[in-house]
Amino acid sequence: MARKKMKQVSCYSIMLAAFFMGASLLSMSPVYAESKVSTETESGIPIYEQIPESTALFPETLLNWSPKTDPDAPFNVSRVQLTNRVKADKTNADQSTEAKVLSIAIVNRHTKGTPSQGNTDKAVYNFTNWQYVDTLVAWAGSSGEGIIVPPSGDVTDSAHRNGVPVVGTVFFPPEAYGGKAEWVRQFVQKDARGKFPMADKLLEMSTAYGFDGWFINQETNVDEQTAAAMKELLIYLQAKKTKKQQIIWYDSMLPSGSVSWQGALNDQNKSYFQEGRKRVSDKLFIDFRWRELAGSKVKAEELKRDPYELYAGIDVQANGINSSRKPSSILGSTSQALVSLGLYCPDWTLRDGGQYDVERYWENEKLFWINAQGDPRDITSTKNEWQGISRYFVEKTTVNEFPFLTNFNVGNGDAIYQNGTKVKEGTFNNRSIQDVMPTYRWIIDNQAGNQLEATISYEDAFNGGSSIALSGQMTAGQETFIKLYATQVKPRASEKVSIITKGTDQTALVLGIKGKQAPLVIQGNQQALENGWVKTTYPLKSAACQMITSIGVNVKNQQTGPATIYLGQLMAGQEKATFTTQIKNLRFSGKTIVDDLTESVRMQWEHQGKNTASYRIYREEGAQLSFEGETANTAFTLLNQKRINDTTNYRVVPVDQYGKENQKSSAMAIYTFEALKKPEISINADTTLSAIGEVITLTANVSKSTEQVHWEIVGATPQSQSGTEISVTFDRPGIYSVKATAVNSSGETELVREKYLYIYDQNAGIKKENLSLLPSTKAEQGSGYTNERESYRYALDGNLTTKWCDNGSEKPWMIADLGEEKTIAGFELFHAGAGGESSDWNTRDYDLLVSSDGVNWINVVQRRGNTEDSSKDAIALVEARYVKLSLEKAEQNGKVARIYDWQIIGVNDTGIINQ
């Protein structure tokens, strides 16, 4: 969706531009990075290089993809069925009951490298305002990481639980951003039987993974024949997809094959929406260039299509609530929405607007989706302000039958709780188990003297990682009402509602009843639970056979003063004993070695899923039982499992729709850690070229299992030490060797670096300096660069505001020519984070090589797993003219080189090694 004016194509602009750059960066080679596996394991469990990741493919790799052969596929499945939902009553008079909202959100930080089922990062886009969204596009894709990207399974789980279909992305970028016409031609190619193999693969993937269709964004210029084939493919998809699946087309390519954004539904692009009686796409996203929408509405009606299947795009990626267009922009002269609303990158609330600060994220979510007042009833915002989505779009609810259970768990947090007790420390995100959050954010009525406000709280929880906190001043005996859920349920007389709270003396149930102006208020019976939680149960006999339209509560305290009240759980319906079948074939399908004491464990099992909402995984270590994870899937990865013994037991327990565990149907399996080996060790010095009396710091990088590190450096002061980091000095010039020994319970490993430290007399005339800045040093060879302003030479200019950037190579490299041989002692590299960019783009793996002739190379540094913004590597002194930097893994996940500075530390001379 190219719409921003581009002055140049640089690495930085690539990352920040809007639609076509939203997911990540550009590299030219289409490589499907499958999990690499080694079957040679002592435990018999396959070892994978990384934990399961979400899928990202190119056309040729899509054709070869199969859920039967992709080892990550089971972990990318969503087993949560799309929940039925209904429209609530209008919260304010401006809301439309016909217009819809399409959210095109970058739900994951990267196209490639996204953990399939969450991880320990709390700052994730765990969207919860589903009541205003009708379809979610999980936007992703880049020419370097993959252009065919299904949603991760955890996103589909949370969307489906809230009644929202979610679709994946097929993204053909503009040529300026790595797009290739060949990719489009591959995508639309027919086989000998006249079928579209790529289209069949799209449907196979959406069925296997359990999501609801595809958003097709074609912005690569092609010929007329390819454009016609694309339309034919869309019609083919319409004929073969299920009714619940949808295909969404972006207003970009025309029948001529050229990309020309119309900003309207018109005669130029209508054939990709409707052709005669043939539906070509289910929805059309109108590009942001639209000026008026009445013509598009008329054209849709001429085609006998619902105008609310058109989505007028508003780009909020960069400016969010400060965007020039507002929700009111799609209204006609009668103040009714002419078409539906399409939001590009409402994840601004976390990214650009929140800078991944979770507290700012929740505040931005309020401003963006509701309004500045945090009350969907409020309609005071003017046309020059961001009115909030709640202003013009009616809420929808999935609470249309009982039982209904929520723990107000938003899917991330600082710890995990069970029944009010903390059972697992540490930040996490797991959108797969996100609950249905309140329909209204927030409708609160305080009686005189009360000043309660609602927030999502991670301070305490009943189940999961969060609760709702009502905080503020309270006056004795005065009530505060909070309206929680829109509903459409007729309860039976035997059914009940229970609410679990903390910090309130009295909680009453408040039900809206259809046809009755006054709400029904029900008092309940309290039961004290652990850790200050109180469960209040309310009989629904007085509401039997009447339509309940809303559920809320009144809270009241007996004393005046500041208060914090937590809402921990709401359960509606008659709890029954449920039957779940036995979990079968529990097995360990793989592992990832984090370190020699830590492994991440892939588990799979078989289960019919009847009466089962999720599965909880426990670790049994002797008599100790510890919670490790929860999923709605029948495959899960336990992260960072610590070795206590060589084996341990894991138990999987099904959980029913009432939140009750069924231990009788659980299954247990024994997991074997890899045999503990002798420790690994490497040595690094902060400098290997030092004057007499100067302090040298030596660091040992060792296996996690290492219990002790012993050093011996003959001639140093002191000569023997212990610890992973030591400091020494020398009182005589010379070349010194270093010996370090790492010890663990399996034995010891000795490492000797011969002639590693060069000590000189202060009067020797040796000057240590950055050889990169010498006039003779040049950089004219390498894999490539984005443009002249980001060429190799900017890596050697000593300026952290410039950089070398290569976005077109699989493994970027460059060579520094020192002009003649010099003495080299080490290096310092300044990566993306040092230049003010994301540390996720720091070089992960690199090699440094030296040569005297530029032909024969010696590897002097092999750095792996770097995450630092700047990295130092000292080496034993070597004489060389050429130095090669080879980026084996240019980012933590991607392939773009970003080197802001490269210091080559040494002496502008030779011959000192033999002095």
TrEMBL record:
Stretches assigned to the F5/8 type C domain: 759-907
UniProt keyword Membrane, yes or no: no
GO molecular function ontology, one term from the record: mannosyl-glycoprotein endo-beta-N-acetylglucosaminidase activity
Domain of life: Bacteria
Signal sequence region: 1-33
An annotated GO cellular component: cytosol
InterPro entries cross-referenced by the UniProt entry: ENGase, FA58C, Galactose-bd-like_sf, Ig-like_fold, PKD_dom_sf, TIM_ENGase
Keywords for the protein's UniProt record, in alphabetical order: Signal
Protein name: F5/8 type C domain-containing protein
